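Thought: the user wants the 3D structure for the chain below. I'll pass the sequence to the structure tool as-is, report back what it returns, then summarize two notable features.
Action: structure_tool
Action Input:
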Amino acid sequence: MSEYEDADDSDEFEVEDPTGSRACAYTSYDRGEAHEEYPKTGRGATGLEREVWDALYAVEDPEMPVSVVDLGLIYGVEVEERPGGDGARVTVRFTLTYTGCPAREMLLADVEAAAASPEGVAGAEVELVWSPPWSVDMVTDAGREDLREFGVSV
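Observation:
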């Protein structure tokens, strides 16, 4: 046997993984229960808050044609009216599907721009939050349908 051929006894070359086996960082194989308050969809919102939610529905994930709202990435929208008619301040609580998302900065900018776009909004801020952790259970029914049409099974 040459030094380049495989040995018959493959156990001899087994290497322990001190971190244990785990799934890819960007794929959720754990189907835990979603927090009972999620997904947030803007249902029941009125006035300027409704307009902000409508604008957020137009922001899509860059890899799949699915709204960030339908993906369950928006954890909340707060509209603070300013006295004197100076316009409202909007805060969006937003998460990502995983912490290392390569589209993080782009999505944050898109969500901020969308939240600031309705007339009457003087400024917007996006709070990136990690709790509760996002799970596929937070995807809305409409989001699931969009994902299936795109070829992703959820």
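Final Answer: Structure generated. The chain has three helices and three strands. The chain has one domain: 33-149.
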